[in-house]
Amino acid sequence: MSDILMIVTAATSLTMKDGSEHPTGFWAEELVTAHRDLVAAGHTVTVATPGGVAPTVDPGSLDPSQTGGEERAREFADYLEAISHELAAPRAVADLDAADYAAIVLPGGHGPMSDLAFDPDTGRVLVAANEAGAIIAPFCHGPAALLSANLADGSFAFAGRRLTVFTDEEERTGGTGENTPWWVESRLRERGAVVDSGAPWSDHVVVDGNLITGQNPQSSASVARRVLDALAARG
163 in helix, strand or coil? Predict the structure, then answer.
């Protein structure tokens, strides 16, 4: 079985275009689905955040109107409670060596737009993992973290790679709307990523070598399954 690193946002808010603060954190469905499925398959998951700060769940992600009903909201809340000891004491990304992990998984929520996208420690770990060929699996807003991965010459480590991400259209119609401070899909395209988008709110996963990306919360289980398949293929 493999050791898997889950890098989670530690942000609690996102500064919007108009200067207001939008409460955020990690998206419950994404963290819960990935963590639960990977652990259930026998793998060890280590949670880490910038600075080792305990991550905050986005309150909207436990709203039954966002989860698909009361039952799923309770399911996510109960799982987060079950792993609360892990979430209360995450590792600091700065203290980690990418070589210790077979895969790095990065769930979303708007939080990565506040911290992971600009965190040099996250960037260092992602560059090292990518150079070693480790599995890297960000999904929804998690691919914002890829923007921190810059090579020594300042170029983007994932330029030319195929990936998917929460689309600008999804952001406008079901995310933070026109008040969004910056657009993750557009920024990744500007840095040279080849973005492959599915229909809005569809389960869409893109695999490009060691890079496995999912478009939105609906893609969470599919990303976890692709990670498990990739780990199994590597023996």
Answer: strand
What does the DSSP 8-state code read for residue 186?
H
C-alpha Rg value of the chain to the nearest Å: 16
Tokens of 160: 């030319």
pLDDT band, residue 182 (cuts 50/70/90): very high
Residue 206 CA, chain-centre distance (Å), reads 14
187, two tokens: 């920024």
Total-model pTM: 0.98
DSSP string, 85-152: HHHHSPEEGGG--GGG-SEEEE--SSGGGTTGGG-HHHHHHHHHHHHHT-EEEEBTTGGGGGGG-B-T
What is the number of other CB atoms lying within 10 angstroms of the CB of residue 95? Answer: 9
* CA 77 from centroid of its chain's CA atoms: 19
Nearest to 3 by CA among 40, 46, 34: 46
pLDDT of residue 46: 98
